[in-house]
Structures are given as structure tokens and as C-alpha cells.
Amino acid sequence: MALKGLMPIEGPAFEKRPTKTKATGRKERYDKTHPIKFPIVPEHEESLIYFFKFYKKKYEIPGIAEFCTFLLRYALHHPRIIDYEIEYVPLTRYKRVYVNQIERDKINGLHGYTTIWRLTQREVVHRLVMSSLFYLQGGGEIKFDEALPLKPAR
Fold first, then answer.
1. pLDDT in the model for residue 146
2. Does an H or E element contain 98, and which?
3. Which of 46, 61, 68, 147 could anchor a disulfide with 74, C-beta 3.0 to 4.6 Å?
């Protein structure tokens, strides 16, 4: 007597199903945002909230994530303020930034900061945001038009 398995190897359950295909030939919009989380130390978070309250009134920034994105964009526009020695400590407290396609390529692209510095995406974002925060703590000021989103060249 031949034994039969409980699950047949052939049959309707194993037939190939049509796969969903992604629309080809369409470019992704450059202004589509991508969230990136980065850790923050509680002492720096207090300072971040202090400056957020100040710039919220000045430039009508709606939330802390938008302010972190504002700081990141300032660092991308002004590489002279970037501190390359900032220590990355993975913690359980995270903040988010929302970057567009061009900013993400500048951070994570072929010739981006992750490749140049040999760091992860989170480490690079942490370094850029903290550099801008330390710039503010040192008495610097950020103007709104100096931290606008990067746009593609026409």
C-alpha cells in the first residue's frame, strides 16, 4: 500500500498565480518624501525642542520632524558646518526627517555621504542634524531660504 502525503505537490494550490507588475517607464517624483529615523540623546533633545519652539514662531514650522528636516537641509546646503567627529550612539529615542529624492541621493547615493564617510544612512543623518544643532547652540542663525528643499537642475 502506497502512502499518500497530506499535502499534494500538484493541484490548484500550487499553480502559478499572475504576479502584479509595477508600471514601467514612470519616473518617481523628486519631491516624494522618504522618512529616515535617527537616534537622539535626551540632552540634545531638550536643546532641539528649545530651538524648535523659537523657529516655530519665526518660520511657522508645524512639527518637530519638519524642524529636524529643516536642520538637515541646512547642513546639506552648508557643508562647512558639518562636524565629522560627532559620535553616533544607537538609542531607543528616535526623531524623524523626511527627505526628498535628491536629498536622499546626496545622503545615500553613489557619491553620497554614506559612501564617502563609510557610514550607515542613520549615522549620516544623525551627524548632519546634530551639526546644525551644534551650530545653533554656538550662536549661529539659520535663515529660512538657506534651508529650502533641494530641487533638480533644469
1. 85
2. strand 94-99
3. 147
